[in-house]
UniProtKB/TrEMBL annotation:
InterPro entries, sorted: Stress/Tellurium_Resist, Tellurite_resistance_TerA, TerD
Family: Belongs to the CAPAB/TerDEXZ family.
PANTHER family: CAMP-BINDING PROTEIN 1-RELATED, GENERAL STRESS PROTEIN 16U
Organism lineage: Bacteria, Bacillati, Actinomycetota, Actinomycetes, Kitasatosporales
CDD domains on file: TerD_like
A Pfam short name: TerD
Protein name: Tellurite resistance protein TerA
TerD domain sequence ranges: 3-166
Length: 415
C-alpha cells in the first residue's frame, strides 16, 4: 500500500522490517536509519531509547540490521519486534540522520514496512527540504494493534532539534558519525644514487640470524556480550572440522504440572545456492553432516540433563550463507522467565565461544540465540539472545521466521 504524508495503514504482524531506501551513488548527503522510542505522551525517556547502527534498544525489540546495496538502491533496515516493545512505549519513530547537506538533496528517498515477507506500506519521501534530521514514519499503538504512519517531518537543527522536540537534552542524540578515514599510502622515497667506495678488506660473514617464528595464536574462551556481540570464527582458528552448538539449562526449579522443562534447540539455515530449511526435533528434521544442509541435531534432551547439540560441518563452510540458532519451549514452562540457559559453540579447532541468556521479562516461548552470517570469506557468529512473543495462533517457529525474514512455509508437526 502506497501512503501519502499523514496517511496510515495497519500492520498485519508484530514482526516488522522497516527499510529506508535511496539511490546508491546518486550524490547528496550521507544518511542512515535510526529509531526513537516514545512513551504514551510522545516523549523519549533518555538516550537509551535511540537506536542506531552502533546501539540496539536495551529491550532487544528494535535493532539496526545493517546497510546493503540492492541494485541501484542503498537500503538500511531496522528489525522491530512490536510484541516485545515495552508496554510504556506507544510509538517507534523511524528517523533518518544526514550529514553534508539537507534531505531535499537525497535522491529517490522512501521508507517501507515489510511484514510476513511482503510490503505492508510504503511512503515516498518527496517533501523533504532543508532538514538535516528527518522523521520518515512511525509505528504506533492503536486499538490493541499497531499501525504504520507516513510522517515526513524534518528538523533543520539536525539531531539536536529532533531530540529537543521529544523532551531530550540538546546533545542527547548523536549526529551521524564521520566515515572511517581512507588508509594513507606512504609516498615513495626518492631514489638515492650510491657513490662507489674504495674496496674494503674482506670480512668474515656473520652467522645467519634464524627467522623469528610467528607468535602463536592464543586460543581461549570468548564470551559474547551486549557490548561485544560478534566474533569471526576464522580469526579464532575455527576453519575446519566440527562446530558443536550446545544449549544447557537449569530446570530443577521450574516444573509445570510435574513435568521437566523441555527446550528444543533448532536452526534455520540458508545456503549459498538459495536453499532454505529448518533443523529441529519437531517433525524429525534432524538434518545431515555429509550432505545439505551440513547441519545435524544430535538428539532431543527432554529434561535438560545433558542439553541439546547441533553440529555444523565447518569443512563445508563455503555452503553457508546464514544460520540462525534458536530455542523453543516444547513443554514444562509457559515462558523463559526463571530459566537459566547457556549457549556454547565448541569448534574442533579454535577458541570456544559462549554466552548466557538474559533474564526474560516478556511472555516468550521462543528465543533467537545466535546468528551465523557470511562476511566475505569468513563466518561471523553474533549473539542475539532475543526473546520473541508469538501472536495468538502463530507457532514459535513461524514467529522467529517472520522476525528474521526467512520466508518458509510451516505446517503442524509433532515429536
Amino acid at each position: 500500500m502506497t501512503l501519502r504524508r499523514g496517511e496510515n495503514a495497519p500492520l498485519p504482524t508484530t514482526a516488522v522490517r522497516l527499510e529506508f531506501g535511496r539511490a546508491a551513488g546518486g550524490g547528496g548527503p550521507r544518511t542512515d536509519l535510526c529509531a526513537l522510542l516514545l512513551t504514551g505522551d510522545r516523549k523519549a525517556r533518555d538516550a537509551g531509547d535511540f537506536v542506531h547502527a552502533a546501539a540496539a534498544h536495551p529491550s532487544g525489540a528494535v535493532r539496526h540490521e545493517g546497510t546493503v546495496v540492492n541494485g541501484s538502491l542503498l537500503v538500511d533496515t531496522l528489525s522491530v519486534d512490536l510484541a516485545s516493545v515495552e508496554s510504556t512505549v506507544g510509538t517507534v519513530l523511524v528517523v533518518a540522520r544526514g550529514d553534508g547537506g539537507p534531505f531535499g538533496q537525497v535522491p529517490g528517498m522512501f521508507v517501507r514496512a515489510v511484514a510476513d515477507g511482503a510490503e505492508a506500506a510504503r511512503y515516498a519521501c518527496a517533501d523533504a527540504g532543508r532538514e538535516t534530521a528527518y522523521v520518515l514514519a512511525e509505528c504506533y499503538r492503536r486499538g490493541g494493534g499497531w499501525r504504520f504512519r507516513a510522517v515526513g517531518q524534518g528538523y533543520e537543527g539536525g539531531m539536536r532539534g529532533l531530540g529537543a522536540a521529544y523532551g531530550l537534552a540538546p546533545d542527547a542524540l548523536p549526529d551521524l558519525p564521520e566515515p572511517a578515514p581512507a588508509p594513507v599510502t606512504p609516498a615513495r622515497p626518492a631514489p638515492v644514487v650510491a657513490v662507489p667506495a674504495a674496496p674494503a678488506a674482506p670480512e668474515t660473514p656473520a652467522a645467519p640470524v634464524p627467522p623469528v617464528p610467528p607468535a602463536p595464536v592464543l586460543l581461549s574462551k570468548v564470551t559474547l556480550t551486549k557490548q561485544a556481540p560478534a566474533v569471526s570464527l576464522a580469526k579464532q582458528g575455527a576453519t575446519s572440522g566440527a562446530l558443536r552448538i550446545t544449549l544447557d539449562w537449569q530446570a530443577q526449579q521450574r516444573r509445570w504440572g510435574g513435568r521437566d522443562v523441555d527446550l528444543d534447540l533448532c536452526a534455520l539455515f540458508e545456503l549459498t545456492d538459495g536453499s532454505k530449511g529448518v533443523v529441529q526435533a519437531l517433525g524429525g528434521a534432524f538434518g545431515a553432516l555429509d550432505r545439505p544442509p551440513f547441519l545435524h541435531l544430535d538428539g532431543d534432551d527432554r529434561s535438560g540433563g545433558t542439553g541439546e547439540q547441533i553440529t555444523l560441518n565447518m569443512d563445508r563452510a563455503a555452503h553457508f550463507r546464514r544460520v540462525l540458532f534458536f530455542v523453543t519451549i516444547y513443554d514444562g514452562a509457559r515462558s523463559f522467565a526463571g530459566l537459566h540457559a547457556t549457549v556454547t559453540l565448541r569448534p574442533e579447532r579454535g577458541a570456544l565461544v559462549d554466552f548466557t541468556l538474559d533474564e526474560c521479562t516478556v511472555d516468550s516461548r521462543v528465543c533467537a540465540l545466535a546468528l551465523l552470517v557470511r562476511d566475505g570469506d569468513e563466518l561471523v557468529v553474533r549473539r542475539e539472545a532475543r526473546y520473541l512473543v508469538p501472536r495468538r495462533g502463530v507457532s514459535p517457529q513461524r514467529t522467529v521466521d517472520y522476525a528474521y525474514g526467512w520466508g518458509l512455509t510451516w505446517t503442524p508437526g509433532r515429536k
